[in-house]
Specification:
The structure holds two protein chains of two kinds.
Chain A (H helix, E strand, L loop, with lengths): L3 H8 L12 H33 L2 E6 L4 H16 L4 E6 L2 H12 L12 E7 L3 H15 L3 E5 L4 H40 L1 H9 L4 H39 L4 H4 L5 H30 L4
Antiparallel strand pairs in A: 1-3, 1-4, 2-3
Helix pairs in contact in A: 2-6, 2-8, 2-10, 3-5, 6-10, 8-10
Chain B lengths: L2 E11 L5 E11 L3 E5 L6 H8 L7 E6 L2 E2 L8 H5 L2 E4 L11 H11 L4 H14 L15 H13 L5 E5 L7 H16 L3 E5 L3 H4 L6 E6 L2 E2 L18
Parallel strand pairs in B: 3-8, 3-9, 6-7, 7-8
Antiparallel strand pairs in B: 1-2, 1-4, 4-5, 9-10
Helix pairs in contact in B: 3-4, 3-5
Classes of the chains: A alpha+beta, B alpha/beta.
Chain lengths: ~300, ~240
């Protein structure tokens, strides 16, 4: 069997040295730059959505909407007692009424009388574990203890936001796939052009008994190296842009946008992009070359 | 002696044009030495291309090494081609390789290890007088030197059959004699040799050789195609 190492080592020069497939590495660099930015956006949005969900999905606010202050206080205490005993609740706390009044002051003023404008009692609940599982049980408990209770699960607010973020995530994935397809088409064109340019060498190789696979290896290896070069250039440029963007976004101080951060896992995925592009280029080049060589005697 | 090459009513047509070769039939015994002559345009190079499997015929039967190569699956061609050494009329050296690497190429294609390559390649370059030009690229070699590299490449693998298209066209008479001696030595070792040539002086140099003449795509005298060559050189165009 052919000794691959010596074949590659000694016969790499069957093809000219230096840049090989024309502008292909630079086209791949541009594709890689855009793909990494898009993927980073998609992964960042996913991370932000997950972060928000972690923060809000396990929280419930219960309002005791009762005009009679004594009855309101009784129902509030009943709810607090019942929920405090529930093992699926990590923390339950009544919000300080004075703090509530302070928060309402911009709308109601500071001199309003709470007997004229009854303010509901508010109870904050932090759930332990899976929020969605615990919710029906808590609703039941609250309804039993306080007929005037209303439950506001914060996770419900996330639904439209989650839908948007999901859409953005899938859009990012679709764009990365399209970029991958465009990269593959670029490699197909480059491989065909390269085969045309080296047709004489290929003919000689064939007539000396070289197999299609031997010839394809020569070309796919060089195309893969060019793709790797383009991929690394594109990744480096995109990483520089991302680092600047992250710094600016975190400087905004927005809770929602500020959560758009790239984790170590996300960076790892992005760093793997050039390797993915190289593998894609190599496989595409191999298939293209074998298909083209198959049409030659 | 068993035939290593068998042509039966072979026709070859490029595209939709007239036949370049028509009704060509002959046998080449294993270990034979055959000169192929004929005027320019007679179809010598086309016939050689059929022999070294660069083309398939439009019609007829070709058996090579006892296999029908007309219907031979494409995937099996490389193994057959490795048994054939070819000296191309236009040399067809790989421009990015040195003379050494061009000569070593058939061995590398066949998977011979680097350790087993160097000695025969050096010896072959020595034989064709190019030991001092081993590292030269084809573009820096003269036509004659390129031709000698091409010949060295064709014979380095001790092929079962050697096919040479005008192998002495660019070398001086002394080198031509030396190269012919190389072909004869290979032939004595069992290689079947087919040499297409216009050089009438070559025909009488190999005592046991056969002569086949092509004219307008046909073997001009089918019944005597493999007769012994004349002792006195006859003019070819």
């Amino acid at each position: 069997m052919l000794r691959l190492h010596s074949w590659h080592h000694r016969n790499g020069r069957l093809l000219p040295e230096g840049q090989f497939a024309g502008p292909m590495p630079w086209v791949i660099a541009i594709m890689m730059f855009l793909s990494v930015l898009i993927a980073a956006g998609g992964l960042g949005v996913r991370e932000a959505a997950r972060h928000l969900a972690d923060e809000l999905a396990g929280r419930i606010t219960i309002q005791i909407v009762e005009a009679d202050p004594f009855e309101r206080a009784r129902q509030t205490q009943a709810v607090l007692r019942r929920l405090a005993r529930n093992p699926r609740i990590a923390h339950v706390e009544r919000l300080d009424p004075q703090q509530l009044e302070k928060q309402l002051a911009p709308w109601l003023g500071t001199s309003f009388d709470t007997t004229d404008v009854p303010i509901p009692d508010m109870i904050d609940v932090d759930l332990a574990g899976q929020a969605a599982d615990a919710l029906p049980e808590i609703i039941e408990a609250v309804k039993g203890a306080a007929p005037s209770g209303r439950i506001d699960a914060h996770g419900q607010w996330l639904t439209p936001l989650n839908k948007l973020m999901n859409l953005l995530k899938w859009l990012a994935l679709a764009l990365v796939v399209l970029m991958g397809a465009a990269t593959a088409f670029t490699v197909v064109l480059a491989a065909r052009a390269t085969l045309d340019n080296h047709r004489d060498t290929i003919d000689v190789m064939h007539l000396l008994g070289g197999t299609d696979v031997q010839i394809a290896r020569l070309f796919q290896r060089r195309i893969a190296l060019d793709a790797l070069f383009g991929g690394i250039v594109g990744l480096a440029a995109a990483a520089a842009v991302l680092l600047i963007l992250i710094e600016r976004v975190q400087g905004l101080g927005s809770e929602l946008v500020g959560n758009v951060a790239l984790t170590r896992a996300t960076w790892t995925v992005l760093i793997l992009f050039p390797l993915g592009a190289t593998a894609l280029a190599m496989v595409t080049a191999r298939l293209t070359i074998l298909r083209t060589l198959g049409r030659i005697l | 002696m068993a035939s290593i090459v068998q042509f039966e009513n072979v026709g070859l047509r490029y595209g939709t044009g007239a036949e370049t070769l028509s009704d060509v039939s002959f046998n080449l015994p294993a270990g034979s030495f055959t000169f192929l002559t004929g005027p320019s345009g007679a179809g010598k190079t086309s016939l050689l291309k059929l022999l070294y499997l660069a083309l398939r015929p439009s019609r007829g039967l070709i058996r090579l090494f006892s296999e029908d190569i007309v219907t031979l699956p494409r995937a099996r061609l490389p193994a057959f081609r490795r048994r054939i050494g070819v000296v191309f009329q236009d040399f067809r050296l790989v421009p990015y390789l040195s003379a050494y690497d061009n000569v070593a190429l058939p061995l590398r294609v066949a998977g011979v290890s680097e350790g087993e390559i160097e000695t025969p390649v050096r010896e072959m370059l020595e034989w064709v007088g190019l030991a001092s030009r081993a590292n030269a690229r084809p573009a820096t070699l003269s036509g004659g030197e390129q031709q000698r590299v091409a010949i060295a490449r064709a014979v380095i693998g001790r092929p079962d059959m050697l096919v040479a298209d005008e192998p002495t066209g660019n070398v001086d008479p002394e080198m031509a004699g030396r190269l012919l001696y190389l072909f004869e030595a290979l032939n004595k070792l069992g290689t079947t040799v087919v040499v297409a040539t216009h050089d009438v002086h070559l025909l009488s140099r190999i005592a046991h050789s056969q002569l086949m003449r092509l004219d307008k795509g046909r073997v001009s005298d089918p019944t005597g195609a493999l007769r012994n060559p004349p002792r006195t050189p006859q003019g070819e165009d």
